[in-house]
Write a structure and sequence with these properties.
484 residues, FAD/NAD(P)-binding domain, five-stranded mixed β-barrel, 17 helices, 19% strand
């Protein structure tokens, strides 16, 4: 029986295991290495905060293309829907809590471990992988428990790296009141009440954390005068995530994602330009033209943008390396804030917080960040203000987003694979270098037999691979090759 080891048991790893055992013509022995007690949730879907919602309606969480209603049915039958009175958004669509989807994935994985069409074995090893190296025609993986595993095939499905610290704040790391990991809820709850809070970043993670802070200031905390002071969210560009509108039916969205030639490519006849490289600036102009056309018909911009997103796997590889780097430097913040739109419930919470003067989102550059007797003293150059602004804060929360540079990774597994030459950073500095089949590319530039990278760590090669529909589609497209 073929030995397969999946390193990382978040959504990507769990979905990969489920699809493998459903499609394999013969039994597989799959080991899922994940340090959490319950695989399937990962960082994003293991949160228990009621304000952390999937940033799309529940219909997008379609794991099985032949049964797109599977999760919505489970959501109702499991009692999750009845337990969440705030799930129904103003758009009339349901936005479930991330924890609900995490529990769904945990149960789905457990069901497939108990029985599956290929009679394969799925077992969860609760550990962290420390070392990966080739051995005896396969691989050997050392775990932090002192044990080791052998495998014929290895799939790297590691989670996002923790956020990188902005240079101005690195000296504050480790200080009381400085929260390096935004998902460390205990550390956030321990921040001193009655003091201002600074949130580094204004994108999706920052929106989630601000919504949580505002909720925790409700009710008893407010009555006991234990609320936090003002919440300042700062970033150099001041970009904030857009709010989700009313999305078209899931059948229509999945059909457009599955087109052999993406709608954006068809509309602009990009196939006719082969083999000439595309330019990011031309794609930006084409997108603006699509948006203007739709708005002239009274439609919103989101469908036009989603067409570009769905075409990313075809467009991105055809950009030159310098053009990719320019796009990441100058356009990534704009792309991400339109790409990763927030649930209407979170958007409303932020709007209310700003209207009440509880929240301020600032386009600002940090001049200095220091520890003082009252916490932290931060000096900002705020856009539109002549004089520097000084904020005295009781706490700072780092919400700058996952660090995409694996060369700076603190993950011992990735460091080991880099040292062994089994993987190398993607040329654009985002994730791991892979081929079109997701096979890892070695330091020498060759495909590594038996080693694949799946999920967000392949974003540098494919251009956009972060959300569940895109990750799930990547896995489904890979399955025939993986099983071969």
């Amino acid at each position: 029986m073929q030995q397969c080891v999946i390193l990382g048991g978040g959504f990507t790893g769990a979905a990969l295991a489920i699809h493998l055992v459903r499609a394999s013509p013969r039994p597989l022995d799959i080991t899922l290495v994940e340090p959490r007690a319950h695989p399937g949730g990962g960082v994003a879907y293991s949160t228990r905060d009621p304000d952390h919602r999937v940033n799309g309606p529940i219909e997008i969480l379609a794991i099985f293309p032949d049964d797109i209603g599977h999760f919505p049915r489970w959501y109702t039958q499991s009692g999750e829907a009845a337990a969440d009175a705030e799930a129904l958004a103003s758009t009339g669509q349901l936005y479930c809590r991330r924890a609900s989807f995490g529990r769904y994935m945990q149960q789905l994985l457990a069901e497939h471990a108990a029985g599956n069409p290929s009679q394969s074995r799925i077992r969860h090893v609760r550990a962290a992988a420390l070392d990966l190296r080739q051995a005896d025609g396969g691989f050997r993986i050392a775990l932090d428990t002192g044990d080791s595993l052998t495998a014929d095939k290895v799939f790297l499905a590691a989670a996002h790296e923790p956020p990188a610290l902005p240079r101005e704040y690195r000296a504050l790391n480790g200080q009381t009141g400085f929260v390096e990991d935004p998902w460390n809820i205990a550390a956030i709850e321990a921040l001193p009440r009655g003091r201002d809070i600074v949130v580094l970043g204004t994108a999706l993670t920052a929106a989630d954390i601000i919504a949580s802070l505002l909720r925790q200031d409700r009710g008893q905390d407010r009555e006991q005068n234990r609320e936090w002071g003002r919440i300042y969210a700062i970033s150099r560009r001041g970009q904030r995530p857009r709010e989700q509108g009313v999305l078209p039916p899931i059948e229509q969205r999945l059909a457009r994602m599955a087109l052999p030639v993406p709608a954006f490519v068809q509309r602009h006849d990009l196939r006719a330009s082969l083999p000439r490289p595309l330019r990011a600036l031309d794609m930006l102009r084409a997108l603006r033209g699509d948006i203007a056309e739709r708005e002239s018909r009274g439609e919103d911009w989101q469908t036009a943008f989603d067409d570009l997103r769905d075409a990313a796997p075809e467009i991105w590889p055809r950009l030159s390396l310098p053009d990719k780097r320019r796009a990441l430097r100058y356009l990534r913040a704009h792309y991400d804030t339109h790409r990763f739109r927030i649930a209407p419930q979170i958007a409303q919470r932020l709007k209310q917080g700003e209207a009440e003067g509880r929240v301020a989102l600032l386009r600002a550059r940090t001049l200095t960040a220091e520890v003082d007797a009252d916490g932290f003293r931060i000096t900002l150059r705020v856009a539109g203000e002549e004089k520097p602004r000084i904020i005295q804060a009781g706490g700072i929360i780092n919400c700058t987003g996952p660090n995409a540079d694996i060369a700076a990774s603190a993950n011992p597994l990735l460091r080991s694979a880099l040292q062994q030459g089994l993987i190398r950073p993607d040329p654009v500095g985002v994730g791991i270098d892979v081929g079109d089949d997701c096979r890892a590319v070695s330091r020498a530039g060759e495909a590594v037999p038996g080693l694949w990278v799946v999920g967000p760590l392949t974003r540098g090669h494919f251009g956009d691979l972060t959300a569940i529909p895109q990750i799930n589609r990547q896995i489904l497209n890979l399955i025939p090759n993986l099983l071969g």
